[in-house]
# Entry
Amino acid sequence: MYQTIILNVDELWLKGKNRYLYYRALKEHVRYVVKQEHPGDSFSCRNESQRLVLISDDQPFSNQTLERLTCVPGIFSIVPAKRLPLDLAAVVPALKEELKDPGQGKTMTFKVFTKRSDKSFPQNSMEISRLVGGYILKDFPWLKVDIHRPEIEVELRVHQHALYLSTRKLTGVGGLPWGMSGHLVTMISGGFDSPVASYLMAKRGCRQSFIFFHAYPLVGDEVLDKIRRMVEYLARYQKGATLYIIPFGDLQTKVSELIRLEYRTVVFRRLMIDCATKLASAVSAQALLTGDSLGQVSSQTIHNLALLDGGSTIPILRPLVGLNKMEIIDWARKIGTHDISLLPHDDACAMLSPKHPVIKPDVRYWQQFIEQNDFSQELDQCLAQATIINY
Amino acid sequence: MIYLDHAASTPTSSLANNLLKNLWASEYANPTATHRKGREGAELINQARQEILSVLSDSTGNLIFTSSATESNNTILQGVSLSRGDEVIFSPADHPSITKPLMRLAGRLGIKLIKIALDGDGRVDQEGFEQQLSEKVRLVVLTQVNNSSGHIYPVSELAKIVKGINSKVHLHVDAAQSFTKLPLDLSDHLIDSVAISAHKMGGPCGISALYYRSGVEFSPLLWGGGQESGLRSSTPATVLIAAFAAAVKEANLKCQQEFQRVQELSNQVRDILSGELGERVIFPFLGSDISPYIVTMLFPGLAGDMLLRYLERDEIYLSSTSACSAPSRGTNPVLAYLGVEERWHNSVLRCSFGASSSQQEVTTFCSHLLQNHRRLFSLMAR
# Structure
């Protein structure tokens, strides 16, 4: 349990005069997480030497807080630390609370690594590491030095007002702070791809509103449990998120009766994009996000994607466009969405789609169909009937 | 609103409903208490017990009240004395409250489970059944009416066979779907125990009973205060029990007349749908030994669940499989055992009738079903 956490930022050093805006956004997100995890507790979050230092004035930060901070975009690493006075003699007593003798005569290896951002400290980094290493060897007979592959890394940070000691580090998602890259409407489905796309763009600082097209009565309500679980999981990377569940079954049924069988999937996609664009306008989002991967299924051929983009008035981001399915699944495993995606669900598109959907559409037929059939009113109705869930 | 899922649960009869309303506020005392208020409750319970036993034609038999037919089945399956090597005859098409405890017992005790011999149409093959009744058989479980298919097992006839060959066998009957709908005469004392349920026949949900013949022994499932002759510890639910008995009495009086009426409803569904859909509807279970209360239909090329949801939107409620196995998808082991081809397992709808079902309801249901079927059938990609 730690009362101090050092948050190392990612790529904010690339920023110039607007850097403070990024720090501000990051601090707000960190505060949001801490307030949720420790309601009513007093804490501070200060920028010290281009790092955020989070100090609790009440209870120590919980492991759950550490875990949640690993999901805050913009943070490169999370270092739970002990804040000590600017005195190297304070290190060993503090380390005794941190390190446990493995017993039975076993030994472990360590290395001391020092970062001195306050250059006025009497010793330089190398000297500090050497001095503290000597203290440790004297007081911890079960520890041996290994500077190449140590089992324990003792990290010391010498800041202007304090010395920070840490022996563990958690990796964050990195990237840019939440909201700094605009607001997206993320089209989520029950599969592997869209959650990975959402994660990747969360990492790039995109705030996201989620939209799910629910094809009831073609499919049952069971799928909603899965989608809610998934969005709740993805909301870890967001500072709160909203899910819009759009009733879409009737429109899909209606349009299926109007369009040629092989064009059904593409037209469903087009209507979804139109609906998501309307939502984007309503929630002031600047772009749509999909999990499309080029050529993965028939609606994702370059010809069909061109048809879809042709109808869109705002950009459609497709971060997975060049990834293979297995690469996407590997990402899903890495970020923890794999097992949720694996849960079985009915898919209306699959039910209504022919065995051989169109790959190279007849653009004239398509244009004619789009011009002759205006579903704008129906889409407005779908949006008006959306179920809205906040996370 | 049209409700055609009576095999899952049926509305309480008006008599039972009135009783519930009238007694709920006053009959709160614990019926095992020795004061007058408690004794009043005990009297109501004993009266109910005698009424139900008289419907079962065994005034010397015993009846304990339980919370559900699942509990009644479990009490017997887990309560009768079984040991390693004993054989138990059952049907994989039985309710999960029979199949699951038996599977567990097979693993724990090392008993051998034998699937009852059926002919190709899901009926008991009597000759095969006789051959299965070896000396090692200790327990036979028969479901009087199957909840998925409506198959009626001639339990009294089968009881004669069982006891004629091996009198030591405990013969348990699950009558949850058949009680007060089909005759069940226990006066010959050949059936050892019977599970019955209130909410399938006009009584309230949450109350059921277990009949056992005089002289039958089994261990209780629940231990505690020793209520219900020590065989079902728990404070008895006086009002639910009284309403259960009232519903039993009412339904039993109309048993034959209702059977005829429901037979007509069942025929009406089959006639209308077959006439309109031809080969696009299949009734896999037909004949005189299928309960008219349950009509199982297959719609090749359509998902039963989907049809169910379209009907649900029209406020017509039925089920795509038995409610107790509803979450299972893909292959349905019950249908497989009953001889239904696997490719049709997802295309099943079950319509089940109760006292409130009418010809008008059936006509409206069929018309909505046909309308939705037409639309969905032309919509499905093939």
User: Anything to note?
Assistant: Residues 12 and 23 of chain A are 8 Å apart (CA to CA).
